[in-house]
């Protein structure tokens, strides 16, 4: 059976991920993501009403016109998890394919939100829920399986395409977490079996986000205990404490909510995306934040919540807000600019439970936001966080576990691939032979 892989997006950047695997006449598409930084750099662009081709020209969504070169039918569109760089282009591209969107319950809930917000295209692909550990037939000879992995969002899976030539494992995005706070640990046992059974692993596509970092990415439970330590140190403070994190990082939001209560404060989620993601997590039953947790997304209800906090005393609350990267329109940035009713005073504490995404626009905006907060006297606790992506020892362990015949580094640019290429070469892989360093818009014929 011919096996061909199209590296459509996310092979020159972290963002707009999209990869297609053709096995004989059947094609499965993994991820359809958005590169948000290409959107945010323009003032006031609303992507909801924009045409796909304009977004492709901006470099914001994958250029899927290369799909015309693949001879086969798309049988499934499979987003691996709910981050925008993996699902953000579904509402712009999926309607062109006569295929269901297959995803885990949390991811599917977020995809529904994307489709509902879309104004230009009507996306009516079937939405099929599939849990980790389950399989689905693709045509007559191929099977799709979801393996449970751990990442900085719940419901992450690695899809595996079992073909007569061996398994194609799509490894985006993950870290190896054996104590992930919410959900099951990464299913290394299943990966070990896949590496040993049948024809073994034909090809592995790897998440190279942190490939240039040595050592091992710690578990979410490490971030949780660090956060606990930081918040307990503030227990006696009788002024304002504000926290920010990735709205999609439900495990972290859960920890913030719990520790707020531990130190006698009422947590309140503020900002549109906080309400969206935590609401989705509650709907699928991943968390139960109980009825007394306030979540406010719309501007007016957020304003009212801030007024209530000021009236009842900031020492009684922990606002958990958007704006961890200093995004100009996010809640924390607005607080820094003094645009909300919340009054920051000398000695008030701001916890960034997030790293800075290493990208110049982000770095500049985050710097500005911190400066604005400092100018009002805020004390900054930054980087109370662990990454959701494997570092080198995790990559080594995955190679050892899967023993793939072919490797394709993804989710980075050429510079970002370099650490992975060195590691793979040290394990006997050869560039141009079985180690395929590539860019957007290429096809790689693995089996002729
Ligand atoms: Zn991700």
UniProtKB/TrEMBL annotation:
InterPro entries: Metallo-B-lactamas, RibonucZ/Hydroxyglut_hydro, RNase_J, RNase_J_2, RNase_J_arc, RNase_J_b_CASP. Zn(2+) 1 binds at residues 81, 83, 151, 173. It is found in: Cytoplasm. Substrate binds at residues 385-389. The keyword Cell wall biogenesis/degradation does not apply. One of its GO terms (molecular function) is zinc ion binding. Keywords: Cytoplasm, Exonuclease, Hydrolase, Metal-binding, Nuclease, RNA-binding, Zinc. One of its GO terms (cellular component) is cytoplasm. Gene3D superfamilies: Metallo-hydrolase/oxidoreductase, Ribonuclease Z/Hydroxyacylglutathione hydrolase-like. Binds 2 Zn(2+) ions per subunit. It is not clear if Zn(2+) or Mg(2+) is physiologically important. Pfam families: Lactamase_B, RNase_J_b_CASP. Homodimer. Belongs to the metallo-beta-lactamase superfamily. RNA-metabolizing metallo-beta-lactamase-like family. Archaeal RNase J subfamily. HAMAP family: RNase_J_arch (MF_01492). This is Ribonuclease J. It comes from Halobacterium hubeiense. The gene is rnj.
